[in-house]
Amino acid sequence: MKTLLVLRHAKSDWHADSGGDHDRPLNPRGRRAARAVGRFLSAAGVAPQQVVSSSAVRARHTAELAAEAGAWHARLEITRKLYDASPGTVIDAVQHADDDVEVLLVAGHEPTSSALVSTLIGGGRLRLPTAAAACVELSVSHWRELAPGRGHLRWLITPKLLRRIGWDG
Predict the structure, then answer these.
(1) Domain span at residue 56?
(2) Does residue 169 belong to any structural domain of this protein?
């Protein structure tokens, strides 16, 4: 049994003079949310051993801030393939993970993040807001076996829900 965490990047700064979509940074609210979700994942016992992130600044910074705040000791792989990717492209990237990794986190974008979770759980409609994390338990022993319909949604957490329940890590 493997666990895949799907993390949508946190709120970005639309007003930053960053030179384009790929280079847009996080805003202060996004940085706070990234740290909160990182602490939550550690507290929930699902700190990833490997992180695969889109190369976009906002996704990479979300993953880095979450890892730092959650004190994860995870290998971090940054790839341009996850920027503007399809769910199939993300599945392909995950299939190449080392089998010693039990919990892997993918940091990416919409609409791919929501579509990926829907694909893995065999359908349904869901939406991941910024800095939301979905925990998908997979009925696979090896990452290369990952395919549509091989998982079930264990939970989905959002920064808004964390604030509502008074969880501040």
Answers:
(1) 2-164
(2) no
Residue 117 lies in a domain: yes
Local structure of residue 22 (DSSP, 8 states): G
Indicate if the alpha-carbon torsion angle 34, 36, 39, 42 is positive or negative.
negative
Provide the β-strand partners of residue 75: 50
Distance CA 52, CA 93 (A): 8
Cα separation, 99 vs 125, in Å, equals 30
Q: What is the DSSP letter of 23?
A: G
Could you state, in chain order, the average pLDDT of each consecutive group of 10 residues for the chain (169 residues)?
98 78 89 96 97 98 98 96 96 97 98 98 95 98 98 97 81
Does residue 111 sit within a domain? yes
147 token code pair = 């395919």
Give kind and range of the element (H or E) at residue 155: strand 151-157
Report the C-alpha gap between 143 and 72 in whole angstroms: 21
Within a domain: residue 21? yes
Give the span between the Cα atoms of 90 and 83, in whole angstroms: 10
- 0.85 cut: is pTM over it? yes
